[in-house]
Amino acid sequence: MLNMTYALKEGILTSIEDVESGLKCNCYCLSCGALLEAHKGTKKAHHFQHHNSIECKYGYETSLHMLAKSIIEKEMNLVIPEVTFNFKTGDYEVRSYPAQSIKFDYVELEKRINNIIPDIVLHYGNKTLIVEIFVTHKIDKVKLEKIKARGISTIEIDLSKADRNISEDDLKRMLTTDCAEKRWIFNRYVDNVYKYLIHKAQKFPIIERGFALHVDYCPIKSRYWRGKPYANVVDDCSCCKYCLEIEHEQEKYDFEYDYPKSIAVYCLGKI
Questions:
Q1: Which entry of 29, 111, 123, 179 is 20 to 30 Å from 100 by CA?
Q2: How far apart are CA 50 and CA 37, in angstroms?
Q3: Backbone phi and psi for residue 233, each to the nearest 5 degrees, phi listed first
Q4: Is residue 42 exposed (0-12), middle (13-18) or buried (19+ Cβ within 10 Å)?
Q5: Mean pLDDT of all residues in the chain?
């Protein structure tokens, strides 16, 4: 059980350091709402504990989650990670924008946007950014698809490995100045670039020849057979900087034993 160091006191998120010991703290669990005791001895780290009830499983996680949201709402500032475009094969990467600090015009917490309720919605100019705080649960596929459908850039901040005794000041620095725990879940600019490139790319059908997978008429002429250029999908296309994507059959496979069948290569070699 991780130490719970934040609780609700008179409806306000409050640190263990700012309350009296024992039941005099007048604090309640952020997760289950139960009455808490403040343990502020000299041998163990200061922490809250449930009074006359079973310890709440998600008390610490909920308090960290709420504290992170409170800090961002108060600071109105966030360093966002660099924006990169990675081809889905090979190691080709384009850095479009460096990491940068952004001052937001206003912040909304748990604000419903159609069929999704993000942790945080940040607004600056005519742009909107969703921020999701990951303590115990990452963004699932269903929510991600809804975010993509709305076309709103989204960052996930991973606090799952944060120090259990992290101070508010240290968490503030992590959120407002660091990028190590942040990643783009969806970036609207990158998505637009990808859609543009997919439209421009040549689609080459994959041909099975024995145990090999080939595409004929490779634009950069990776290999030749009797005067005709071609490429081996595994050895050439999968690590080629012009290979935007390898398309697979849209079927369900048992990935422990089987692999989806590759059917086409989207190639940018010609352009």
A1: 111
A2: 6
A3: -60, -45
A4: exposed
A5: 86
